[in-house]
């Protein structure tokens, strides 16, 4: 061990499992060979609300089992009613799992599922979110545990007295999690214990949840999650596929594999709620904000309350003496919304940052300048100082890199052939979090170290970064670290979510490595719970600024993003290669939110009808032209031992607003109803 | 997915059992089978038949075999030179992988992307006659403004077919009753009250080839497609055109619209208006408007009128510019 070793953290180490992935040898949940596996096909409700009276299967069908609430083993109900699959006749949304067909082949299972007859008593349903919905209510808390409403000062008086005010409503549609790898499980029972090869973001959480449903303690459920092809939050907890596979396997006495077809991803795994956001801003002529009011209307299901924290972001972005935020929910006969990359921040910053752009226009102030003038000294609502906040630096440095200076603020001034050209910007932020985790390190006989933690790598590079962190903490080269993750039997790690994985797991790994060195023993385990729980929760955020240049075709109204640039201040960047990929991925997903993605609701059917990837558009390569991300060298030693902030989600926060604002600059048209599609521009173009 | 038998076609005139269907690239049919929308008992694979050639005809036209892959057709130098609109239309469609599988015959006979049609759990007069058309009240942003009926407002989604309609292509068909030819513009039916039938083909009739008649001025032809993302998306509106201008005046023009009707829409009214008129943007707009007078948009698809007018003017103006 030498003190002159260059640090591994900060180096652009390539993903350790990269070669396995590109050669196809990395195994995902559905790819394990597990004895004589049988195939489960999920039968989904064809109606949004009603009661399932009976399931009629063709007795001659080539199946091993047809499970429904009339014959499925009983589960011990937990706190997620969506996991109580096949337990009741109640149908709460279209697409809900109402039966599972198990057969010896996938084809036979699917065929029998399509031929199943469902005897359903249909009931009236309500699928449309609206601001005058009679059932709107204020939830007690919004995700994960924020107050639903905050208020200080006198917003109404301040707005009435404001020199300049905007009062605008922005709408974002239902958005759907579509990781490349769909939700998938192979379940196998052995001597009463359950083994799950499952695609998820939290193996120990899945073990505990599924175990409880079957009356098993977590240690009798073994969840293996070696590689995951993305999750975005939709795999944060066990999903019905895991429970269905376990039920099926229990009944047929064979391992059962359940892979959700793409269409089912639009109902069974959680989506981002549509939002209707009213934002009111009041300002002095010099741009000083006097009032901010941000109210969101959003939906949840009849089964389960999930309240997206859409306006929470407004509580810590800008200073203003009078402020109010709130959330109202309607329970609809629709699938339950859940986490999708930057829940709350992503839609909330569409409303806030587009409204600010409108205010800048009214004031005749540069939108960057407007933000700088309202930079708070401390967190505006809690009064807690920021551990670090370099938002203004991101705005300035980003503007410099992007070439913002000299921009003509007037809309519809630049034209190149058929293209209207415009630029826009928006701010970005994401909370810096950490959660308790435990890691274990062992010195091996060959001089290497085994570092074990039940974390998951969703394709983000977690495995690689933890290796780097361990190498530095042990002061050995990365080649001497053997990292083990993705297994519920390893020391318990927190969920890969909330952009908190690297911080939470890195903290535990650092602790274990330090302890190993200090103790001189050859094994050490470290649990970060104490340290994490004593941390102040407020005042911890990453910041950033997005800049977009768009072209709008005067002939067709088609929008293309010719440049997208993000500048971030997100603490210490642990690995610039994997970080860049996270930031760019978030920005591209933000482009999708601005221009492409939309669950198209048919209220009469109670369903988003464009439920496949041919009809639900996400950006393709041709949509991504010139894109880049950069970051400031931010040091923050108050947040965790690595000084790192989360970077998995901030890329999607603000990039949609930057694009929408650029569309206005190009065309003079404010589209306040995302996505910005050609039909919303065409008739308004000059 | 229903169990089915598979065999290869040995002759083009062999016909089909009642529940059999032809299989070509499978990029549309197999999807519909998985979704339970198509339920054939037997698939008869046509891709082993010797129908994959592109040959020049003595009159200057070109014969395209039914199983020529979309990629090969788009890349053919004779097509690129003589009928650029066709090559451009093909390349504007789907993705490289799909075009490598998709065939001429299959592309013409691909079915609507109407989101209710593609979901066997939903009512739809096209896949389940008499169950109704939820698209009229529901999602129809990308459905027909021309040629639809009370019973159905589906659009034909093909890009290639729009170019073929403009070029006056003729489909060669072989079946139990012998060979016959059908102009591409007559191949697809308007839905009326029997939307379940997409085309005039009898069950068991096989497309063997598509003939492009000689059309010297088609060297000056173009396809332009508007869509919801830069690539890999069906058209929300498209225009195929060929233009022959003499001394600033339109001598001959071929014009067809895509993604607006249950068939590739040959704009004969607009063509008629344009012949003999000055080749100016105003004429082109006026001609498009004349054709679009018949449009009957629904709640969410009236934008297609503006879109098609703009596309028509832009494409023809560019072609007229090239002529100068
Ligand atoms: C994700 C996606 C995106 C797409 N995007 C586009 C797009 O942007 N633009 C576009 O134009 N298309 C697009 N397509 C559609 C694609 O072009 C068609 O699926 C393809 O052309 C069909 O050809 P195929 O040979 O695979 O036909 P198949 O699927 O094999 O057959 C289609 C139909 O034709 C019948 N058939 C086939 N050959 C014959 C024959 N010789 N005689 C009689 N009947 C026959 C079959 O019975 C079947 O009914 C897309 C498809 C997908 C899946
Ligand atoms: S438009 Fe045609 S295909 Fe679509 S739902 Fe109506 S009948 Fe079916």
Structural notes for this entry:
The complex is a heterodimer of chains A (686) and B (324). With 686 residues, chain A is α+β, with helices and mostly antiparallel strands. Chain A folds into three domains: 18-26 and 434-533, Aldehyde Oxidoreductase, domain 4 (2-Layer Sandwich), CATH 3.30.365; 32-124 and 180-230 and 235-266, Aldehyde oxidase/xanthine dehydrogenase, molybdopterin binding domain (Aldehyde Oxidoreductase, domain 4, 2-Layer Sandwich); 141-175 and 272-432 and 538-682, Aldehyde Oxidoreductase, domain 4 (2-Layer Sandwich), CATH 3.30.365. Chain A has 15 helices and 30 strands. Chain A has a seven-stranded mixed beta sheet, sandwiched between helices. Chain A is globular. Chain B has 324 residues and is of the alpha+beta class. Among the domains of chain B are: 5-45, no CATH class; 219-323, 2-Layer Sandwich (Enolase-like, domain 1), CATH 3.30.390.50. In chain B, 27% of the residues lie in helices and 21% in strands. In chain B, helix 4 runs antiparallel to helix 7 (160-166) and helix 9 (268-274) runs antiparallel to helix 10. The termini of chain B are far apart. The model of chain B has no long low-confidence stretch (mean pLDDT 97). Classes of the chains: A alpha+beta (686), B alpha+beta (324). The A-B interface holds A 46, 107, 110-111, 114, 418, 553, 555-558, 560, 595-596, 600, 602, 604-605, 609-610, 612, 614-615, 617, 619-623, 677-679, 682-683 and B 1-3, 34, 36, 113, 115-116, 118-122, 134, 137-139, 141, 226-234, 236-237, 300, 303, 306-307, 310-311, 313-314. The structure holds flavin-adenine dinucleotide and iron/sulfur cluster (SF4). Flavin-adenine dinucleotide is lined by residues 21-29, 31, 46, 66, 93-94, 98, 101-103, 105-107, 109-110, 157-160, 206-207, 234 of chain B. Iron/sulfur cluster (SF4) is lined by residues 112, 114, 116-117, 124-126, 133-135, 143, 152-154, 195 of chain B.
